[in-house]
Amino acid sequence: MATYVKINCGNCGKKIQGWHQDPWHRTTKIGVPFSKCPFCGCVNVNEHIKEYNMLNTFDYINMCLPSIFGSFGCSIILTTIMYGIFQILNFRISNGIIIFIFFLFFGVSLFFMLKKDIEIIKTEIEKSKERLKDKNYNQIILNLINDLNDD
Question: What is d(CA 13, CA 30) in angstroms, rounded to the nearest whole number?
Fold first, then answer.
């Protein structure tokens, strides 16, 4: 599901429209971390989009949060369905087995979701490395990193 986001330019204050982002728009993404305002030409920085050389460990964890939460939710739903089936069939099942089933579902779904996330992250890192080969762009990113570290 996507949301339509209106962002104000930091310089002229006009609304920059047409930015479509997913519900996890506050999670870190790999890409071009700035955009030009079509009205005044000012460069606006999005702190949730970073290039490969700007990432830290927290950013990688932040990129995988949707998969972790999704796996947790799927595990709760699947465990509840499994528990309901056991109740309908009049099987007596202990809490320990239910907990084991939950963690089994959580582990399997997390494995497959993180596997997909890691493949996407690898391709985005390759695209970022290609962009960073441009000397002018690389200098802009280094200046941006220095500016962010000064704040």
Answer: 26
> Looking up tokens 């690898």, which residue turns up?
122
Separation of alpha carbons 62 and 68, rounded Å: 10
Q: Kindly give the pairing relationship between strand 34-36 and strand 29-30.
A: unpaired
Q: pLDDT tens digit string along 49-69?
A: 888 878 888 888 888 888 899
Strand 29-30 and strand 15-21: the pairing is unpaired
HEC letters along 33-70? CEEECCCCCCEEECCCEECHHHCCHHHHHHHHHHHHHH
Phi, psi of 30 (to 5 degrees): -100, 125
Residue 35 class from Cβ within 10 Å (0-12 exposed, 13-18 middle, 19+ buried)?
middle
pTM: 0.65
In contact, 12 and 37? CB cutoff 8 Å = yes
95-132 and 135-150 are packed helices; what angle lies between their axes, rounded to 10 degrees?
A: 120
Per DSSP, the residues of 62-121 read HHHHHHHHHHHHHHHHHHHHHHHHHHHTT----HHHHHHHHHHHHHHHHHHHHHHHHHHH
